[in-house]
Specification:
Blueprint (H helix, E strand, L loop, with lengths): L11 E8 L3 H4 L8 H9 L3 H22 L8 E3 L5 E3 L6 E8 L2 E8 L3 E7 L6 H8 L2 H9 L2 H22 L6 H5 L4 E6 L5 E8 L11 E7 L3
Parallel strand pairs: 1-9
Antiparallel strand pairs: 1-5, 2-3, 4-5, 6-8, 7-8
Helix pairs in contact: 2-3
Length: about 220
């Protein structure tokens, strides 16, 4: 029996979280990937980097298939000049983005609106002040300085994921970070995901129109197998 399609309404944002499966679980499914994706994976020197890349692309293709009804291997994915994946000639106006960090993958999907997601494992950030001076506003820097030191790494990384998710949604590099943070056409939200991780999603938001309420965000978890 064919699995029912997943349904996504325009006001909704669907987020899917998955633990990175072992490499032996991923390898039998490589035929679902394009030749270019398999070649990119083969160029990664570290086994863990290869595992995360394969897991991310397999999860993305599987989800796109569940929403569109098209087989995963028949989906034509390409990359922008900044590396953001997109679907050439999709059958529905589906926008998506993905992120992976350590042992988790996060995929975000929306209709009609650009979307970006970012996921980070909480860890020490030795040069947080230098990074904050370059990419964060004066108010954000002051907030970080006022944080209790034991909490600062998590707070910094939460702020960083929101900035990175926005940049990924727009498809630009870090140079536009401060300007985009003040753009009223975007909504950026922190996410509660796995223990020891922080995440964020950024989406286009039609403020000032009939669609004034923020979109509904739904987070689900995919089994790792």
């Amino acid at each position: 029996m064919r699995q029912p399609l997943l349904e996504l309404e325009k006001p909704e944002i669907h987020l899917w979280l998955q633990a990175v499966p072992p490499l032996e679980v991923l390898l039998p499914r490589l035929e679902l990937l394009s030749l270019e994706e398999r070649q990119r994976a083969g160029q990664l020197q570290l086994v863990e980097d290869r595992r995360r890349f394969l897991a991310g692309r397999l999860l993305l293709r599987t989800l796109l298939s569940h929403y569109s009804g098209i087989p995963p291997q028949a989906i034509s994915l390409d990359r922008t000049v900044t590396g953001k994946p997109y679907w050439r000639d999709p059958p529905l106006p589906l926008q998506f983005n993905l992120s992976h960090s350590h042992q988790w993958i996060l995929v975000g999907l929306a209709l009609h609106r650009r979307i970006g997601v970012d996921l980070e494992r909480i860890r020490p950030v030795p040069r947080w002040q230098r990074i904050a001076r370059r990419y964060f506003s004066a108010a954000e820097q002051a907030y970080l300085l006022a944080c209790p030191p034991p909490e600062r790494d998590a707070v910094f990384l939460q702020m960083w994921t929101q900035r990175e998710a926005l940049l990924k949604a727009v498809g630009v590099g870090l140079a536009g970070a401060r300007r985009l943070a003040r753009d009223p056409g975007w909504l950026t939200l922190p996410l509660g995901v796995a223990d020891g991780y922080v995440a964020a999603v950024a989406v286009e938001w039609e403020r000032g129109t009939a669609e004034e309420a923020p979109p509904t965000v739904r987070l689900g978890q995919v089994p790792p197998g």
